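Incident log, structure service

09:12 report received: a user says their structure output differs between two submissions of the same chain.
09:20 pulled the input from the user's history:
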Amino acid sequence: MPTETILLVDDRQYVRDAVARPYLEAGARVEGLPTCAEAIELLARLRPDWILVGEQHATELLLWLRERQDRVDIPIVLLPDLQTPPGREHGWEPRAA
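09:34 re-ran on a clean worker, output below:
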């Protein structure tokens, strides 16, 4: 079975790490990028199976994709911009017992 390629676009590294983890563990190839410009550059060379994109980059990416007939059928999942509580910018940390 071929490995799926997932393009993940979000400017926060901890979000990219958390979202990519289960896909990587399942054997997918994940290309995590912080900017839409980098994602568009990659999309010009690579056709991923899925695109996961943060709200802050969705509009620009969708505008670029709609003009590319060979890319318009790629499923896109919008990652909601969940507000991270102060002090949790780098992910979840367990409490001491």
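09:41 both user submissions now match this output. Likely a transient worker issue. Closing.
09:42 reviewer note: Residues 5-79 form a domain with the Rossmann fold fold (CATH 3.40.50.2300). The mean pLDDT is 87.
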